Amino acid sequence: MSDTYSDLYSDNIKQIKASAIREICKLIARPEIISLAGGWPDPHTFPVTEANKIINDLLDHNWKYVLQYSTSEGLPEFRFYLSQWVKTHEQIDVSPDNILLTAGSTQGMDLAGKTLLNPDDVVCVGLPTYFVGAFTIYGAREEGIPVDCDGMQIDILAEKLQSLKKQNRLVKLVYIQPNFQNPTGATLTIERRKRLLQLADEFNFLIVEDNPYGDLLYEGERLPSLKSLDQNQRVIYLRSFSKVFSPGIRLAWVAAEKQIIRKMVIAKQFIDACSNNLSQYIMFEYFKRGFLESQIKKNITYYKSKRDFMLTTLDKYVPGEIHWNRPRGGFVSFVTLPHHMDAEEILYKAVEQNVAFVAGRPFFIDNSGQNTMRLSFAQSTEPEIDTAIKILGGLLQTEIDRNK
Ligand SMILES: Cc1ncc(COP(=O)(O)O)c(C=O)c1O
Q1: 253 within ligand 1 shell (Cβ under 6 A)
Q2: Which one, out of 119, 124, 295, 355, has a CA that is 20 to 30 A from the CA of 64?
Q3: In whole angstroms, what is the distance from residue 361 CA to residue 372 CA?
Q4: Using a 6 Å cutoff on CB, does residue 106 contact ligand 1?
Q5: Is the CB of 183 within 6 Å of ligand 1?
Q6: Distance 371 CA to ligand 1 centre (A)
Q7: Rounded to whole angstroms, how far apart are CA atoms 365 and 248?
């Protein structure tokens, strides 16, 4: 369809495609669909009773403040609290000046791009990765670095950095999710974490560390964040409340070097003046009343059981030629089909039978990954997961038989 305004749009917006994942979510928003697609939290985990009480208390006693603007950096007392909290819980040594409240980590990503990128700067991202396109909107070029079951392959990143240097191309950022990466569920090993930080010093780039799922660890040891290992202020750390409280609150925080935070604050002033003040007060109270710790524990038990259930049903129903990983945390497992198979074709057939997932290709900036799919266990119930994987297994078997 031709667009009446096409002459008036910016070049930046013209070259950006809509998020394929969000578009799929729109297409499958029918009640009869069992969705393994969206990486959304299960609403049953939302802390409704606690939130209700906190909101009422805030509006009864503190309405003059909570319904007011806040500073662009975020509520000073909350930033102070977070700086103490992250010291105790994650061994990250920051002061309130290192912290900025944002409208979700999505805004943190955008602010990082806005603050740091010029057209043609290079950003290295996982192949596959979440947030495809977040940096190209600023004219940056994304380079894909393959991800295996231990996360981004840092030796390949090192080679890429060398070859880009030879071409005089400036790598400004590496975007990475070390814990239970979306979409692969992979966890970056400690050796790779340390090597990545060394490379950042050697090649003078910054790292955007996105850690929305870090609290949801179901097995194995908790690895230190890049930020906690970051001796030379290379890391911009994004920490979202979406997966442990609720995404609707649209609140997250960034921890980074003070000067970078300052620039991000200036950029933010023109976007929304300040993050949602009511949300900040709610979250702050939620922390202070000690609810967060128990919420995280509850969520771990809840989602671990769903993860285990989905892995069992995959074993039960899905043919042996197909492989998937066992994520140590987070919301998703990643499935690799034989090379000749096309996950998008399977998706259309699955939707006809009221089952949805995300075909992997939109996560690959080089348009590969046609034989991959992301399955989220977060939102559906166990009987729904059983039905969905059974249908999927049947479709995959038919496809395999057809190609024999
Ligand atoms: C890896 C990753 N980063 C960021 C986000 C968005 O987080 P927020 O709701 O804080 O914007 C998501 C949401 O699914 C995600 O998977």
Answers
A1: no
A2: 295
A3: 7
A4: yes
A5: no
A6: 24
A7: 28
C-alpha 100 to ligand 1 mean position (Å):
17
In the sheet that holds 372-376, the strands lie side by side as 323-324, 332-336, 372-376, 358-359
Instruction: Provide the whole-model pTM.
Output: 0.95
The interaxial angle of helices 190-203 and 154-166, nearest 10 deg, is 10
> Which amino acid does the sequence have at 79?
R
Whether residue 209 has its Cβ less than 6 Å from ligand 1? no
CA of 175 to the centre of ligand 1 (A): 13
- Tell me, using a 6 A CB cutoff, whether residue 39 lines ligand 1: yes
Name which of 299, 290, 324, 298 is nearest 310 in CA terms.
324
Q: 234: helix, coil or strand?
A: coil
Rounded CA separation 159/136 (Å)? 22
- Counted residue by residue, the chain has a size of 404
Q: What angle do CA 207, 161, 258 make, to 5 degrees?
A: 25
What radius of gyration, in Å, describes the C-alpha atoms of the chain? 21
Q: Is 130 in the pocket of ligand 1 (CB under 6 A)?
A: yes
pLDDT tens for the chain, 404 residues: list them.
Answer: 688 988 898 888 887 777 666 666 666 778 899 999 978 999 999 999 999 999 999 999 999 999 999 999 999 999 999 999 999 999 999 999 999 999 999 999 999 999 999 999 999 999 999 987 889 999 999 999 999 999 999 999 999 999 999 999 989 999 999 999 999 999 999 999 999 999 999 999 999 999 999 999 999 999 999 999 999 999 999 999 999 999 999 999 999 999 999 999 999 999 999 999 999 999 999 999 999 999 999 999 999 999 999 999 999 999 999 999 999 999 999 999 999 999 999 999 999 999 999 999 999 999 999 999 999 999 999 999 999 999 999 999 999 998 87
Contact 35, 24 (CB under 8 A): no
SS3 353: coil
Which residue carries 């950022």 as its tokens?
173
Tokens of 230: 């970051």
Q: What is the DSSP string of 148-161?
A: ETTEE-HHHHHHHH
> Number of helices (H) and strands (E), helices first, in the chain?
14, 14
